[in-house]
Amino acid sequence: MPINLSKGQKVDLTKGNPGLKKLMIGLGWHVKEFDSGADFDLDAAVFMLGDNGKCPTEKEFIFYGNLAHPSEAVKHMGDNLIGGDGSGDDEQVFIDLSKIPANITKLAFTVTIYDSDVRGQNFGQVNNAFIRIYKEDTGEELLRYDLGEDFSIETAAVFGELYKHGEEWKFNAIGSGFQGGLAALCANFGVEVE
User: Three-state SS for 140?
Assistant: First the structure.
């Protein structure tokens, strides 16, 4: 039975699941019915962060333009250009906790709206957004966080984060929005963008 989290809730992931190493992170959303004249393209990304809350290098920014970390600890399963039909995960990320480099203590899972400023789109036009974590081998869902309808003008959101606490990994349901899309998130997490 998966744990349904509310905003700000933190939960142990590995403590109650000894030996858990390989996870899938599923992110999903549904676009409300309206016509902006452009497709909605939401993109999941992972920022692999050190103790200072920043990515050590641009290699720790995993997204559609950099699908895997050299350690193979984090692999983006590919960009879904249309997404949002409401039938399960729109994008997925594979995590191998045993391969996460020692200098990485947190993984932030984010979603941004591609070309949001040009297309005039924001998270106020998105609903049923969620992040879920399940076992890679069995598909057993461990936890889920539904973001709710708290967004309006934001063009990027941090859905949640996995973080190291001693030898264990925990999950924090964040659900915070940003204006400024991917560039704002990159600036926040110390990644320089062109």
Answer: coil
